[in-house]
Amino acid sequence: MTESDHRFVNYWESRILHGVFCEWQAACWGLPWSVRERMRAPVFVLKDFENRLGCWMPEKREIALSRRLVTTHSWQDVREVLLHEMAHQYAHEVLGAFHETSHGPSFQKACRLFQANPKATASYVPLSQHLHRALQEGSDKIRMRIEKLLALAGSSNPHEAESAMIKAHELMAKYETDRISRQVQQEYFSVFVGKSALRHFQEDYNMGHLLSDYYFVKIVWVSSYIFSKGKMGTVMEISGTVQNVQIAGYVFDFITQYIDAEWRRYTVGKKLNRYRKTDFAVGILSGFRSKLEKEVSKQQTSESSRSLATIEDPLLNQYFSERYPRLETIRGRAVLRNYEVLADGTLLGKKLVIRKGVTSPSNHSGKLLE
User: Fold this and answer.
1) What is the C-alpha to C-alpha distance for residues 64 and 19, in angstroms, rounded to an integer?
2) What's the predicted TM-score (pTM) here?
3) Which of 167, 160, 315 minimizes the C-alpha distance to 175?
4) Between β-strands 62-66 and 54-57, what pairing exists: parallel, antiparallel or unpaired?
5) Residue 362: what pLDDT?
């Protein structure tokens, strides 16, 4: 390795450790002040572990993360392991659990506080791999049928394409209704979609509402480190069953790419700023939502049809409330709109058809270090 390579690796690792420290601070922010005083920042290091992803060393006051983890996994995987080690730190330094087993009652309590994975880091797999395994091990019949319908939605016949997409939604709703009525136990996942940013535009929040209302997931905006800025930002996190998280993530990616492609075409020969793209994107999302609302209205007139409207899953609600017991709703300020651009986007949204095969969102398994 050349001297230049060494400098790059050192820079990258220092940026990773800075991100880990920022995530540690963000996770501690919600703790009572009396607790935060006892939860002092430890030393953060990267090590070449053979069989573990991370480790809390109380005698050194050190949280060590696997160098392999941070170079081959997504930031959400790194964050999950950090929260696990923070739970160990909390159990020792705040709850005084020095005489308990390493994964005893105090540690389990700390895991609930930090939404950490309680399994031993020597044996559990990172979130992205866990998600992939759950998809492979679960029943894929429904997902395969949905995938086939979305593939049919790529038809050049607009009526056939739209019909296939609506059928896919109906199948999702039918499956969810049957599962909830039979109280089938499911494992729930929470994953990031999109990118962390210092600020998000109105279309990002509208996208979150669309996924929550029609794709059987719950959304929340959480803190996450932004490597390019060296600061904490926020990112959308979706929660639901493994199938619904996968489909909602795919829809997020598909609509985002659709908006970008249509905006490039729309702006040829025009001088429009970034806020006009927000008008355009909000219009597309509004038009697509109106299409789904129209189908809801049709289905509600038929007793035999399954509605596309939100289906409440009590087990998901319980999972979500336990994960985020203290949520706040923040309203944004009103903004000026260009209603011509908004209307043009709305027309395109009404033509939008979600199609092609269902694939995992790209950031579920992406490497942090390319």
Assistant:
1) 14
2) 0.84
3) 167
4) antiparallel
5) 47
